[in-house]
Amino acid sequence: MREAELLTTKDFVDKYELMAKKALGQNFLLDANITDKIMRLSLAAQNIADFSHETAVEIGPGPGGLTQAVLRQNPKELTVVEMDERCLKILEEIKNFYPQLNIISGDALKYDWQKKYETCGRFHIISNLPYNISVVLLTGWLKQIDCFKSLTLMFQKEVGDRILAVPGTKDYGRISVISQLQCEVKKLFDLPPTCFVPAPKIWSSVLLFLPKEKSIEPAILEKVEKLTAMAFGQRRKMIRQSLKTVPNLQQHLDELGIEATLRAENLTPEDYLHIAERLV
Ligand code: SAM
Whose CA is closest to atom 23 on ligand 1? Predict the structure, then answer.
């Protein structure tokens, strides 16, 4: 039966005695001020007032704190994909107040993003990501970036730093190159451990990914992935060594004006792209 008022996330957690499971990467956001701040800053950075007429997908809604914040932005549809069946009753209660909530019980790693795009057009992703699969999910999304309008994602701060890292720094690596080639990435804000229940040991960061107007062709992106795997796999070596199996390497580097004595971390994302373009 529909209750008179939608419960707060903390009240839902108490009502259903939901204890966080470490194996599912569960660190819950129970404070609506924080979940609303995520949405407010994300929408402002996208220059949109709210999610009216927009479709969104949330991974791992858990007890639904961020879900309620997304729904307050009035999306046309919000699909949530949650693996923990204990959360379904809470999500059903939220749906009583927001019929545009579409609940999927399952593994986000198996979700068909392309199919969603074919039925709804480009959509937004929002998630306080389960930390153990955050990079796998992001890598998959970056490969099909044309499906998305934006991705608003919470990572462990250390992962966020790697995504945003610039050439010449120790954090710069494969995920920085691929993220920055496919998207404009902005940090919205950092959160201390105390914002979560239970509190993790480390800080977190919310990043906004805005897909670039022209995405990289899949065949070229695959080459970028191979090149960066080779180069960063031996990041202390000069690229003439780490990339030595690339056909006609020296000729490509000469024509592109890239020194063969540089190391993986000294090449910009565009340098990797330009080499890759010559290999397909
Ligand atoms: N969104 C909630 C919040 O902000 O309070 C929970 C975030 S918690 C960091 C991550 C959520 O992802 C958990 O609810 C967890 O059960 C869920 N999860 C973990 N692995 C998943 C998977 N493979 N597919 C779908 N959900 C998953």
Answer: 107
Topology (CATH) of 2-211: Rossmann fold (3.40.50)
Residue with the two structure tokens 């998207």: 183
Residue 164 has pLDDT above 90, yes or no: yes
Q: Whose CA is nearest to atom 19 of ligand 1?
A: 24
Crossing angle of helices 218-233 and 269-277, in 10° steps, is: 120
Express each pLDDT in 104-154 by its tens digit.
999 999 999 999 999 999 999 999 999 999 999 999 999 999 999 999 999
Mean pLDDT of the chain: 97
- Domain extents in the chain: 2-211, 218-277
* For ligand 1, atom 14: residue with the closest CA: 62
- Topology adopted by domain 218-277: Helicase, Ruva Protein; domain 3 (1.10.8)
> Does 204 contact ligand 1 (Cβ within 6 A)?
no
| Spacing, Cα 231 to ligand 1 middle (Å) | 33
- Residue of the CA atom closest to atom 12 of ligand 1: 60
The answer, yes or no, to whether any atom of ligand 1 lies below 6 A from the CB of 29, is yes
CB-based contacts of 203, cutoff 8 Å, min separation 6: 156, 157, 190, 191, 192, 193
Judge if the beta carbon of residue 126 lies within 6 A of ligand 1.
no
Residue 4 confidence class, pLDDT cut points 50, 70, 90: confident
